[in-house]
Structures are given as C-alpha cells and as structure tokens.
Design goal:
357 residues, alpha/beta, oxidoreductase, 3-phosphoglycerate dehydrogenase
Length: 357
C-alpha cells in the first residue's frame, strides 16, 4: 500500500460548493493546498442542473442548515445516485441535517462535519441566554418599550451562581458550557447523555444523570444534543411539565427537538419562567410566531455560532478535512466509520492507488 504521507503526491480533489462558504477565509486556506480545486455550483431552478455540475466532483461542501440549502441539493440516496463520483460530503458546520448519513454509508461516501469549531461561540450564547432570562431582561425591556412604569421589584430576578444547570448532551458545546458555569458561577452541572459513561461525563465537568432526574432537579435546562430520530420531538408537553416550576429552558441545538406549541403553553401557564431559543422548526420563523412576541422569550436566528472566530475555525477545519481526503488519509471528524471499507475502495478506484489508511 502506498503511503501518500511518505511520498505519494496528494490527489487532485475537485470540491463542489453551492453559494458562498461560511467565511471568506475558506478560500484563503484552500489556496495553500494546490491539490484542492474548488468548483462553484451555479444556482438553478432545476435540481438536475445543479447536480449535473457536481458529477465531476469528488467532494461536496454542504451547507449545514437544512433550510438554507435547496431541497434537491440535500444529500439523499436519490442525490447520491445522480453524482456517482462523489467520495465525501463535508458539512460547513457542526450540524449535518441535510445529509442522510445512512444513505452515504450505503454508497461508500464519507460524511465529515466541523464539530468543535464553533463550540466557544455557541457556549457563550447559551450562557448569555441563561443569565438574561434569570435576570428577566426580556421582560424589563418589553415593559420599558411599552411605557409601563412599574415598581422595579416586579421584575425581581435570580442569580445563576450556585444553581443547578442541566445539559442535555455534553459534546463539544456542552463541555464548554459546563466549564464556564462551574468556573465563573460555581454551578452544579448535570448532564444526560446516553452515549457517554459517568467517568467521561465527569471528565467533561458534569454529573451524569438520566433525563427525568435532570428535569426534576435543574433550575436551567439547556439542549446540546444532535437532531436525529432519537431526539426529534424529545421535548414536548410531558418533558416541560417534568421540569421544575419556574425553570428556564434554553436551546442552541436544532429546531424540532422541542415542540414549539408545547413550550408556548408551558410559558403561558407560568410553569416555565422563560426560554432562550436560537433554533426553530422554520428558520427564520414567521413574523407572527407567538414565541417571537412573548415577553419571556429571547429569540435569535440560529446565530449562536455565527461569530467571526467560529466561522474562521469552521472554514479552516473544512479545508484541513479536504486536504486529508486528497492525501488519502483518514478524514477527521468522520461521522460514518461504517463506510470506510467501501470508501477506501472507491478512493483507490478514483485515484489509481491505495489510500494511506
């Protein structure tokens, strides 16, 4: 087997992308790798026309947000059948909602994301929402704009110091949130994550508990789990009812994990004190969405990870992944290792030599 690290030149890797990448530094970083050829896919009303432009490409740089990407360009089994030369689908972010991982695995296509690149930005956003909701900032701002002169004690807030915060999922973002909460505020941090054992959760700064315990004991519940078949609709009426009365709900994960109508009811009934929502079923949500107008909701438009620093890291991570693919090495942050055997054979067929893994 020829080791591309030891002497084989990197393969010429054609990368198709639709629309501008998350940050212009993507192009700057790519220029340092002459083996990478970027192919801009011209937008078209016809999905077939856009797919046709990808047929000569080995890799596809996929927009991470499912609603910012035209449906025909989502990576499905049908899509993959139309672009048979594709070796890798590389998400432009930590999420990869538009990519059907099972279909890629069946086709021998590697799926790669940029997990961790935006962890600091998203963690800061989540903690900021927690602080603002506990101090009732949205309510006081709404009252002032409406010209309501009320006794300041009507907006009595709470401090986060020493409180219990429950994290649903403790990956890159959850780990950073736990570190901030413990170091800055001395919080007790609980985490419900079915994929990690207690020792791993402890190493990431939290106490492993099951979801019912987390809901019952947390003053703040913050979602940091992926959107998939196991989490879709996980937070509905029953989950909100199981939370402490007066608790705060925050999500910077993905829309669809929580039921928006059930959340509204929990707020309207007074069971929950507030909600911080960066993600929505429809993004952006319609302007008449009742949660947008609610005085105890902080609403942002999936911008938790949209920082200069995060976007630069995301761009750099993606280029590094493409460079590893071109060199015939194992791509980082691979989401479907089950595809490796077929991916290895397809890479060898495309470039006329065995990869280095």
């Amino acid at each position: 087997m020829q080791d591309s690290r030891a002497g084989g030149a990197p393969a010429r890797l054609r990368i198709g992308y639709l629309g501008r990448p998350p940050h212009p530094s993507f192009f700057e970083a790519a220029r340092a790798h002459p083996e990478l050829e970027l192919v801009e896919i011209a937008p078209s009303e016809s999905g077939e026309a856009m797919r046709a432009q990808l047929r000569s490409c080995h890799a596809y740089y996929v927009r991470a947000s499912r609603q910012e990407l035209p449906r025909p360009m989502h990576v499905t089994a049908e899509f993959l059948a139309a672009v048979p030369n594709l070796l890798a689908a590389v998400s432009s972010g930590a999420g990869f909602d538009p990519i059907d991982v099972a279909a890629c695995t069946d086709a021998g296509v590697a799926v790669v994301n940029q997990a961790g690149a935006n962890a600091q930005g998203v963690a800061e956003h989540a903690v900021g929402m927690m602080l603002a909701l506990l101090k009732r900032m949205p309510e006081t701002a709404a009252a002032m704009r409406a010209g309501r002169a009320e006794d300041r004690a009507a907006f009595m807030g709470r401090e986060i110091a020493g409180r219990t915060v429950g994290l649903v999922g403790i990956g890159h973002v959850g780990t950073r949130v736990a570190a901030i909460l413990r170091a800055a505020f001395g919080c007790r941090v609980l985490a419900a994550d079915p994929y990690l054992d207690a020792a791993t959760v402890a190493a990431r700064g939290a106490e492993k508990v099951e979801l019912p315990t987390l809901l019952a004991e947390s003053d703040v519940v913050s979602l940091h789990c992926p959107y998939d078949a196991t989490t879709r609709g996980m937070f509905g009426a029953a989950a909100f009812a199981a939370m402490r009365r007066g608790a705060v709900f925050v999500t910077t994960a993905r829309g669809g994990i929580h039921d928006e109508a059930a959340l509204l009811e929990a707020l309207e009934s007074g069971h929950l004190a507030g909600a911080g929502l960066d993600v929505w079923v429809d993004e952006p949500p319609p302007t008449d969405h009742p949660l947008l107008a609610h005085p105890r909701v902080i609403a942002t438009q999936h911008t938790a990870g949209v920082t200069e620093e995060s976007r630069r890291r995301i761009a750099r991570y993606a280029v590094e992944a493409f460079a590893e693919i071109a060199a015939g090495r194992l791509p980082p942050r691979l989401q479907n290792p089950q595809a490796l055997e077929r991916y290895r054979a397809r890479w060898a067929e495309a470039f006329g030599r065995a990869p280095a893994f």
